[in-house]
Amino acid sequence: MIKITDLHKSFGKLEVLKGVNAHISKREVVCVIGPSGSGKSTFLRCINRLEEPTSGSVIVEGVEITDPKVNINKVRTEVGMVFQHFNLFPHMTVLDNIELAPRLIRGMNKQQARQTSTELLQKVGLTDKHNVYPDKLSGGQKQRVAIARALAMHPNIMLFDEPTSALDPEMVSEVLNVMKELAEECMTMVVVTHEMGFAREVADRVFFMDRGVILEEGTPEQIFDNPQHERTREFLQMVL
Amino acid sequence: MSLPLALIDWLISSINGFITDFVPQLVQVFPQLLRGAVTTLEVTVIAVMFGTVFGLIFGLLKLSKKPVLHYPAVIYIDIVRGTPLLLQILMCYFLLPSDITGIFGTENSALFSGIIACSLNSAAYVAEIMRAGIQSIDRGQMEAARSLGLTKAQAYTKIILPQAVRRVIPPLGNEVIILLKDSSLLSAIGVTELVQAGKLFAAREFAFFPAYIGIAIVYLVMTITISRIIHWYEKRLGINDKDN
Q1: How confident is the model at residue A141 (pLDDT cuts 50, 70, 90)?
Q2: Beta-carbon separation of B150 and A80 below 8 A
Q3: Which residue of A has its CA nearest to B163?
Q4: Which of A169, A181, B11, B235 is the most buried (most CB within 10 A)?
Q5: Nearest CA of chain A to the CA of B80: how many Å?
Q6: How high is the ipTM of this complex?
Q7: Is residue B242 predicted with pLDDT exceeding 70?
Q8: How many beta-carbon contacts under 8 Å exist across A and B?
Q9: pLDDT tens per residue, range B202-214
């Protein structure tokens, strides 16, 4: 479903990704862990070309997205993304945030879009916040709206870029629970996270990234209980 | 005569002069000032309208990463902001072909060239206001919009510009007030705007004091009204202004 080959990305002289190779199958949940500055977010953002790869190949559902001729907007409708800082549209209500893309891009009429958004808000457990603006929501609520917004396009893949890192501790679980539910529904997910408990419980595979490469990958048991690399062990010792 | 008495005498004659000369002359000059103020407002409104439209375009061009779009906008903005408005007015009046400036009749050619100059000037300043307003919107907004599959144009019209509008209202209001006052420079090419109207009256009636005080009053009424309207509008827009 996602095939990444020898992916490089530099910002000026700084080489952030130094040849990343990865294969992610349909319905797989992959958690990407690693120290800050290791290139996790950049890696994730290359999958929907929010970052333009310097070289290498990124194939999403059979489409080589690094090809400049590819209609990246079309690809992005199939790949939902959730950000660390939610990035909800502050000038729109919760419903409008969710309905914008389906109406604008899928051409849904008001009724269809309303049905979709109502269902999604129910799914993320926010039935009483339809017409409020984002600044009236807590962090956890914002992130759940952001997840609903991404799901409204019915993507086949969901990317999460540290979705709980900006949240107060007591709000982390409400977001993780929504993500768990998604994983149970067999959504293909790539999650950059510092939530090791979540990674262990939900991930099918864990990537450990360090200094611009995937240093080690394996099942959560392999990575957490029996890490092969010294760097992986050091990192896990620090965060666990 | 002792000093206190002289002072009292001066005061009485001043008050006397105020009642007998100043007030009647002020009343007399007002209709002419109001006609001048209408011209001032005409120039300001038209220039601000053109300035806003072209300012937005130049602002977007300046933000473009494509050199063919970016550099012409940069050069335009630098030239206009780097030269005095008075010079720009003189250049539009004297250097533009009379076919253009006389398009609304030769009797209006000074006014029309003045409007052109103020519009071009305003566009450059508004361009910088727009650019700053757009750049002040968090990068994540564009990223979120693009990640949903919106095109760049859709992201701008639906997400970035609606938010930028709120941010540019205060500086844009400032620009309107500045332009309203600076349009007085059109008196240099003989446009009978507010200052020129007062000057003509002052010279004709030999009544400088009432004329200039009158001009100041009319400007103040206009500028204070505008800034109150903008303030009210800002507040109305500001209800849901907080970022998430």
Answers
A1: very high
A2: no
A3: A91
A4: A181
A5: 34
A6: 0.93
A7: no
A8: 75
A9: 999 888 989 999 9
